[in-house]
Amino acid sequence: MSPILSEAEPKELRDESDFEAICSDSDYISICGYGSLLSERSARSTFPELINFRIARLNNIRRVFGIIAPIFFEHGIAKPETKEISSLFAEPCEGETIIITVFEIKKSEIPAFIQREFAYRFLAVLPETLDGKLYHKPAVLCSRSTDERFFQVKCKGYGEMISYLVASIFDTVF
Question: Which domain of life is it from (predicted)?
Fold first, then answer.
């Protein structure tokens, strides 16, 4: 098991150096897929050079539809009349288990990954095989953020000004 985290405690990755720390001596980093990235075809459309695509399990995590993503409106996917406007996120939840995919991307792709998934909170987690064997290396999971965390961590110095302009991003319930 990785000395960086335990199975029960996902570790938040706040910046590129945190991502680098879980790569250890490898030129690759593991990514968890739980929505569209469950499909290898979809994953390859985002990460064409990915390797080692496989199915795994992640304990004490659940999937929830709950982030309103502008991309849904930009691409005409959203249906406001039926409230089909939410994208999927994962969050820690004791006792829950989800099926995921795990694959590796080049370490050099980390900055683009962080930029593309800007609104998410990144967690280092330890998936397990479908046989119940823990992975030895952590993988990155995109998780739900909160307004407070988003303004503090992602907006770095502009959080107070942005929170004045925008009432809520993650904490609004429709």
Answer: Eukaryota
The answer to the question of residue 83 being in a domain is yes
Distance CA 23, CA 12 (A): 15
Structural contact between residues 86 and 66, judged by C-beta atoms closer than 8 angstroms: yes
pTM of the model: 0.77
Cβ neighbours of residue 120 closer than 8 Å, sequence gap 6 or more = 67, 89, 142, 143, 144, 145
Q: Are residues 107 and 45 in the same domain?
A: yes
- Dmax (CA) of the chain: 50
> How many alpha carbons lie under 13 Å from residue 25 in its C-beta half-sphere?
0
Length of the chain: 174
Q: Over range 133-154, report the average pLDDT.
A: 80
Residue 114 CA to residue 138 CA, distance in Å, equals 17
